[in-house]
């Protein structure tokens, strides 16, 4: 559950395939800013779209957005400018996937890790406080809230064809070899076994991102496969991404891929795949309130685990068990098999993109923008870091290794004991005297 804690205690340049296209300017009007800075009022965005495949993709995506709006049974205007469409669950984007067509949301798992006999609390809305619900409006039962994607969102993307996707070189970051691709990390990770899920509580911060081409996030990664073409990952957490959302608000997100970020997978509900079952959590919507430096700390608890019976990977918010939805087993290869098919690595921590403007390091923040040594109330943290074993039990993440790609820019330091179990502080300001 999101709480006021009182203890004392990705885009780098995409390698383009050069194809000869005749470029034709197309003027697109949008009600949202196309510059990635947020902004108020209407603007007219001009973008040079390729007349070939890029232009066709743009038109297909516009048609997909229109279908979501048409399916909506209720529209909610969020105070921060977001528009939330309440879409019948069986008409959500997930079921456009070829492997999911004609299906309906799966039944909830019969048992959950570590608390299979416990009854989840109903209506745990504060498991993830979000701005769009502050008006007191909700989506009806039987629907899911979908944050509306606008043409302005598409125009901000560096590539319409890869809108909502991470760059292909992201696989190097998971491999812990990201010194040259602009993605920098401070993470704790476990390897050397089979893992069937992961859980942790992490506090949420309004990290400052200096360029629309950069982002900052804090998340859990569940990983399996090789680092060539068949890497499977499941990811969830919070992120600040001006290019994706048009502002600097920390937002709840999900992600997946089954081919090392090449052609499959996406953030949130931007493509068919993740099946949402919760009517009161909007994936991609802003989280509010957030942590304040030297003040109240607000954190969220995330649990990702594999249902032993159906093989789906479920996402739960809060210790009381508010289910958000699941990644169907059919989406994956290594992570998709039923029974013993688990992950071979789990990661927890932060990631920031450094585009190195003018040759200097970006001042984009990771976490709170403060180094781990500042401790509670000032630095970002993960606490109660756990994994799920073969018998569907939550256990401490034994052998958790800590690694910072560039400790002078973003660092990490951990410990163990007390109410926090296995924990670590992480993050940093980016450019500073130790990181010129």
UniProtKB/TrEMBL annotation:
<dbReference type="Pfam" id="PF03080">
    <property type="entry name" value="Neprosin"/>
</dbReference>
<feature type="domain" description="Neprosin PEP catalytic">
    <location>
        <begin position="177"/>
        <end position="436"/>
    </location>
</feature>
<feature type="signal peptide">
    <location>
        <begin position="1"/>
        <end position="34"/>
    </location>
</feature>
<feature type="compositionally biased region" description="Basic and acidic residues">
    <location>
        <begin position="96"/>
        <end position="111"/>
    </location>
</feature>
<dbReference type="InterPro" id="IPR025521">
    <property type="entry name" value="Neprosin_propep"/>
</dbReference>
<dbReference type="InterPro" id="IPR053168">
    <property type="entry name" value="Glutamic_endopeptidase"/>
</dbReference>
<dbReference type="Pfam" id="PF14365">
    <property type="entry name" value="Neprosin_AP"/>
</dbReference>
<dbReference type="InterPro" id="IPR004314">
    <property type="entry name" value="Neprosin"/>
</dbReference>
<protein>
    <recommendedName>
        <fullName>Neprosin PEP catalytic domain-containing protein</fullName>
    </recommendedName>
</protein>
<feature type="region of interest" description="Disordered">
    <location>
        <begin position="87"/>
        <end position="182"/>
    </location>
</feature>
<keyword id="KW-0732">Signal</keyword>
